[in-house]
Automatic annotation (TrEMBL):
Residues 1-25 form the signal peptide. Keywords: Disulfide bond, Signal. The keyword DNA damage does not apply. Coiled coil: none annotated. One of its GO terms (biological process) is lipid transport. Residues 44-124 form the Bifunctional inhibitor/plant lipid transfer protein/seed storage helical domain. GO terms for molecular function: lipid binding. The lineage of its organism: Eukaryota, Viridiplantae, Streptophyta, Embryophyta, Tracheophyta. It holds the Pfam family Tryp_alpha_amyl. This is Bifunctional inhibitor/plant lipid transfer protein/seed storage helical domain-containing protein. Belongs to the plant LTP family. PANTHER family: NON-SPECIFIC LIPID-TRANSFER PROTEIN 2-RELATED. It comes from Glycine max. It comes from the Eukaryota.
């Protein structure tokens, strides 16, 4: 048990370091920072449990994470496309446990206008 926890802590630390490296490294690579799936992690962390249950009580930190993501994807169409792929990847992995109504209403429920129609089966290629 202790070994499993240590292994998990190491794995998430490594994942975080990759995120930080990507975030820090990007500005030096050029003017346009490439969006990585790391950037949707706060949304998953803050909205994950709500999206499974639905209901009227959206956690405030979930809406803040959605708003942050909106500000990030406003950078460019390409960023919107990459963010879409990241989201769809997570949704596909968890489609059995996700309340699709709650998921699709997330931006609206938070009062955040995302630049694309937000559905569990949206086609990211139309953004490109
Ligand atoms: C799914 O979420 C919607 C919207 O929040 C809610 O009205 C509905 O009761 C939820 N459905 C289930 C099966 O939990």
């Amino acid at each position: 048990m202790a070994n499993n926890k240590t292994a998990f802590a190491k794995a998430s630390c490594m994942a975080l370091m990759v995120c930080i490296a990507a975030a820090l490294g990007a500005p030096f690579l050029g003017a346009m920072a490439e969006f990585t799936c790391c950037e949707i992690k706060p949304v998953i962390a803050a909205c994950g449990s709500y999206v499974k249950t639905g209901g009227n009580n959206i956690p405030m930190e979930c809406c803040m994470a959605v708003r942050n993501l909106r500000d990030i994807v406003r950078r460019s169409m390409h960023t919107q496309y990459l963010a879409c792929l990241c989201l769809q990847d997570v949704v596909k992995q968890h489609h059995h446990t996700i309340n699709t109504t709650a998921y699709e209403n997330l931006p609206y429920s938070c009062g955040v206008a995302l630049p694309y129609h937000f559905t569990h089966d949206m086609d990211c290629n139309i953004i490109r």
